[in-house]
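ASSEMBLY PREDICTION REQUEST
Request ID: AP-0331
Submitted by: J.K., bench scientist
Number of chains: two
Total residues: 645
Priority: normal
Notes: Please return the full assembly, not individual chains.
Input sequences:
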Amino acid sequence: MKAARGRRNSNYNFGGQAGNTSGATVRLQNLSRAFGTTRALDGLKLELAPGELVALLGPSGCGKTTVLRIVAGFETADSGAVEVDGQDVSGMPAAKRDMGMVFQSYSLFPNMSALDNVSFGLRMRRLGSAERQRRSADLLDMVGLAAQGKQYPHQLSGGQQQRVALARALAIEPRVLLLDEPLSALDAKVRLQLREQIRSLQQRLGTTTLFVTHDQEEALSMADRVGVMHDGRLEQIATPDELYDRPATPFVAEFVGIMNRIPASLLALLGASALAADVVRHPESPAGGVDVLVRPEGLRIAASSTGNGIVVSRTFLGQRTRVSVRLSGDVVVQVDQQSTKAAGLTPGDPVDVSIAGAPVMLADR
Amino acid sequence: MAAVTGDEVTEGLAPRPSRRARRGIRQFPVWRWVILIVVGAYFIIPLIAALRFTGFSSFPQVVHQEGFSAAFELSVKLAAITTVLTIALMLPTTVYVHLRLPRLRRLMEGITILPIVIPPVVLIVGVLQVAPGFLKSTPYLLALIYVVLAMPFAYRAFDAGLRALDLQTLVEASQSLGAGWRSTLWRVMLPNLRTAMLSATVLTVALVLGEFTMASLDLYQTFPVWIVAFDQTSGPISVAASLLALFVTWIFLLAITMIGGRSSRGAEVSLFSVSRRVTR
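STATUS: Completed
Returned structure:
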């Protein structure tokens, strides 16, 4: 994608300053929504600061798309409110909310060229023809498709279509930009490229953005903050680092990144007797037992003929290698080891696994 | 921001068909030719026989026969009114069902098939029993009945057209950009349903121009009724009139298909097939 060189006289506020905060404040107050007996949303509260990109992450059916559609005005919440810059827009039709949206399925109008698609929203706002053309050309240039203005959607690739869709959503200078899994229909390489472009554009324009995805890599790499959803509730909202290092619930811990779940009864086997004692003494330890959640990088592995585990498999990840080890009781853990040290391990080798440092958290068995 | 040349290079090239695939495109299996010839003969031989019976000299005489102009004019008027009413009724209905009541699509398919199942004689007799006097005294009652007859064909043409679109997403995209329902209908939905509308139009016009039973029972001399009545006077001219109606409908159909093929973008909807054009 070509950089916008500023050679056109554009109204867009992309002076190249990172952290430009011209966007709106969005506040979701106790949103609830049920479809029949299924509670899609259950009292969700969320606030987006101006210019912030917040990703909603979660498995299918967790309610993240429902949130987006309520904010956009395509669904109505059973209770709660959506506020933009302090104004309650809950009862406002979608056409009046001044929000740009990019959909998962290619949503370009098949009967219009790329340029006409981008200028559609400007036409609805009764902008003059010359101004529409200029702004649309600016936006297409910004997404690197200046030469494709006259092409129709069926003549564009998937990635190109989504870039036009993004330009179209931004053309109306929306208060809020809504992205509904815009990259999920694209192949991996195009997805990576478009991810960077979206983030770069969003930061340049300072548009408050709500981004829905089930791909945690996408969420963690793009967002200022990530909200993990589960069964209609927001389990945790935090920066990517905080989410990974200090998950608030076992669901978040296991959903974000790889997590080992080790029964507390095996802690002594892993040389963590003191930790095991702590777990037993913990006032919240239920009678049914407790599991300890540890990241792969929180475990150590060493070859040992009298070890506590057997290597099951090895996955080369570049500088690091992920080794699967079966412990006693058919518990399999993932251990990250430097590739140079893991090179000598093969399936079937006896190894010694130990815990290095404190586990991430405890969870009910 | 770095230029993403790889993106354009990767996305810009479509794979070239293999040599075997290219040969396959040119070769047409023999059995398909056989079926095409047999089916073609089934349709064309009677037409050739009719043409031989009537001779080319009969065609110019058709338009000068008594009653031709009035009958043809009535049929064309009925076709126009029926088409407008059918589209005005079935297009919004089908769109609404697709957008808001997708679970009713099966029911709609069942309801719209009824006019095909129920014999036309039963329909017209029933209608004539209950129709108000002011309608019965005009031929335009026929237009209302023809709307019912055209319903199965129109519904399926619109349904096929809508299935080729992701209507829900298009409507929501339009609304998110600030368009109201009127703008969405005029600028987004109708242009993308142009081929479906043309298909519905062709099927409706062909139906009206060829319908005999109801018109004759309603005692109005539409073009098919005139052809049958004139058959008593002059067989060759009657047959020439039938062939003329057939050829005119064919030409109309071809013209519609060509216009629809030129104007369709992304979704190909012909009278007989629906496909979504694969994007690169």
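REVIEWER COMMENTS: DSSP finds ten helices and 18 strands in chain A.
SIGN-OFF: pending second reviewer
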